[in-house]
Amino acid sequence: MTILNDFKCRFLLGALIILDIAASNATGHVLPGDPGHSAMHRQWPGMWQPSGSGRLRMITAAQEVAQVEDSTVFASELMQALFGQLQSSGAQDDRPSIASAFDPFKEQVKVHWDDKWLYLESNGLPTHNMMVGITAWQQQVPLPKSYFGANAWQIPLHPVPSKNPVSIKGRFLRGAIAIAVNGIPIFNPQNNRCEVSAEIGELDQWGGHCGRGDDYHYHVAPIHLEKIVGPGKPIAYALDGYPIYGTTGPEGRPVDEKSLDAFHGKTDANGNYAYYAGTKYPYLNGGFHGEVTEAGGQVDPQPNGHGIRPALPPLRGARITGFKRSADNKSFSLEYKLGSETCYVNYAINADGSVKFDFIDGRGQVRTETYSARGAGGGRGQESGQRRPPPLN
To answer: What is the pTM assigned to this prediction?
Structure first.
């Protein structure tokens, strides 16, 4: 057999193997492992895909094609294309389906998982603006948070319906009850005094504000995210593992609120439970259909907000009218009106992690304070106090 004919035969073999892989993937059939896998793994580390020997045979065929004289360049290009496809498809093999809900915000939210949990990492700041419109302000401001590593958010991958579902009314008043797909936590619609935050001027135009740890979070369902993720897609996940949809359900139709249960959720024809957003209390999940662990008045585990300064009292009569920040989230300026005066809180994060605050009153007088991180125990106010989860596996 000539070199050219041999190359053609091997190329045809490669094509047949691709068809074999497609058929195997379509049926979900996993073939026994190939005994040559160890040597292949040593020669091309990272290319071995453990989900079936079809992929290994494909790699072997491509390797042999590359070794055929006078066909090296063409075959190498073929291998690169095949390997790129392998790596792309292999990376998705064990990806939980709920991970795709966070894809529209993949620049801000990183996800990883084990067999029980989906872990979400973010800096706790949304890409939209913040704070504007608040008329009941406790002088908190948004600061980046380190929701990374062992301090990441956790969502159960396999939610379990609770034998005794619990309401959030008057309960779970500390910490989050859900997390939005942009990585921002969602707290109980009630504040720590059992008042509905949206009804007393505590929230900005996007349904959020800052807790006593200067941690930004929502208190209502962030329906505005539906414009980004698209109708019929989850805008958040409750911490019991069930999705929260916006104004449109997964079937693509507006939700009939009369069909919802006491927790603002329902089970569809396929047996899948989900919560739905609303424009009045409870705004999102009014309780937990699934199993959760409660500790210290909040769902456990969840990250720690790590505040750096003491909680301040409410500033009566203040109305937040503007907010600006740098592209790197290192410097910020909050503008508010107090009577006829325009005042500012300008603050910046220093290289050592401390934060310098300039409080500027209506006459232009400046008071400066600098705060350093107080460690894991910092920022545990009545609303935003949080517990550290166990280390990730």
So the answer is: 0.74
